[in-house]
Amino acid sequence: MTREPYPSARREDIVDILHETPVPDPYRWLEDPDSPETKDWLLAQAELYGKQRGTQRFKSRVAELLRSGSVGAPIWRDENHFFSRRTPDQEHAVYYVVAPDGTERALIDPMAIDPSGLTTLDAVQPDKEGRLLAYQISVGGNEESVLYIIDVATGARLEGPIDRCRYSPVAWLPGGEAFYYVRRLPSTEVPENETQFHRRVYLHRVGTSTEDDVMIFGQGLKMTNYYGVAVSRDGRWLQVSSHEGTAPRNDVWVADLTASPIDRPELRVVQEGVDAQSGLVFGRDGRLYVHTDRDAPRGRVCVTDPAEPGFETWRDLIPEDPEAVLSDFAILDGLERPVMLVGWTRHAISEITVHDLETGERLGEVPTPGLGSIGSIVERPEGGHEAWFGYTDNTTPPTIQRYDAATGETTLWAASPGAVDVPQVRTEQVVYRSKDGTDVRMLIISPVVEAQGPRPTILYGYGGFGLSMTPGYSASILAWVEAGGVYAIANLRGGGEEGEEWHRAGMLANKQNVFDDFHAAAEHLIATGLTTPAQLGISGGSNGGLLVGAALTQRPDLYAAVVCSAPLLDMIRYEKFGLGASWNVEYGSADDPEQFGWLRGYSPYHHVRESVAYPATLFTVFQSDTRVHPLHAWKMCAALQHASTADRPVLLRNETEVGHGARSVSRTVDLSADTLTFLARYTGL
User: Is 660 a catalytic residue?
Assistant: First the structure.
């Protein structure tokens, strides 16, 4: 096979000396997306990819499987509730309010706002009475989350746009006259390269100018801090939390709003300077419930008095489980014997247990539809005996289940609206051994028909930020397996599948464990006869893009094809772009000599070697990505195209007007079809 010649890419003799170590960077010029040279190179790459793209053989099937639509869990306000739903022909989910008689009314339809499909709904928060609704939207994938307030009864817009609200919670005070929220400082007040940082907590009074907003918290703290804010249902207690970037620890404060003004709350420390994460729920019974991994890496629930919330007063209610991770809880107190529902993931599979609210005694389990993933457990703000939770697994589109604690029964409350012919697949969880002897779990989804020898296989992983890879409905996975392939998802260290210790075993100095776990997963799939190196493709995005970038440079012999999406790949300079500065608590900083050594040890861009037969590689990047700049993939693509001696191509799919996160369904279909087609071609499916 003779591959197309690659576009010309100038190699510069740029070498930085960091901590007395030379660090070459021959494609530094590709860091400037606005330079004519970069634009010409991107156009040439687009032309090359267009020639190589081929027929999107999976497109119609992925589109058909996505016609399942989706449905979201309800948010209750008295007898009304709010929820989202996407019907089979919609590009985006629509947000509704539902009256007690079941009458639905659309409140926010992204396609009505913007028929181009480029506008996404990022977040919603009704006020405590359900009369006003805060919502946030962004355009073209930039995730900037502009905030608006509407009147629920009329749909009239009352406030907005309020900009700089990316990742902002909205914490309403009773009556809907004011709320706390998080907003970045104006760009005029911060250095040019720090405009994505410098958040503050503000109090905003509805109907007044944001110029009059009162800064409540954040002055003088680290620029990369993220803040959380919440107000108890009765309006008495304010909770403020602070994370340094994405660090797995936070500081937490509370204020009694009956004892200090809402614009000058007297915040008291609950947790500060502690290497743990804690979140607070103010119970209707007057107690403070603390969900924490402090002294409990898999999580526990403690109770205390909100007036004396310090750690020394915490009492275990739900102790740590040695094998399951405590994910969330809900309180059902409309019963003679009030209970707490506790959500867990046990080796990435979800379950819910029932406990006595006073003693924590386990009383039973909530029936669930199968071995899958459960979303947050929702209760009515005023209490009761009902709870709602999302459920999905590898063959079940999202559903909402209702649990009645009075009867102990779980029933289907809402299903995804589309009728879809879902293929039958076989799913099993296996345990394999990593390089250092650690047991790692992997979910393998395969055709029901017994294999006659090894099959083309996709291995997927993430392994970072404490995020867990749990079962879920995926049109891409189902289309691949229906066509005869195998799809494997490894629960690598760095994730949260086994709690915070599992996360930390794959971050900072331990990052190589993640890559070793991934290589071992591949070797297990080969050793057990499921696949061969010539039939094995790997896929990952964002931190998972870093994963597969490291995999292809460390073990190019082990993989036939790679899809590397929105990746981090230059780990020496990653902090200088996008939100990179907020991730040095996960990866480390090249400014620190020891941490520079960790990063240089695996940084994929710096480990591309001359005259190596690299796997077929497709980089998929998004021009409006404000989290991970596309320059990582651009530089790596140029380096691989220069170095690889293989007939298999290195290609770049550079997409405009989308970003790192949400996108329209049609854009999702195109991306899935292109990546599956590429992987099929170079694994022999």
Answer: yes
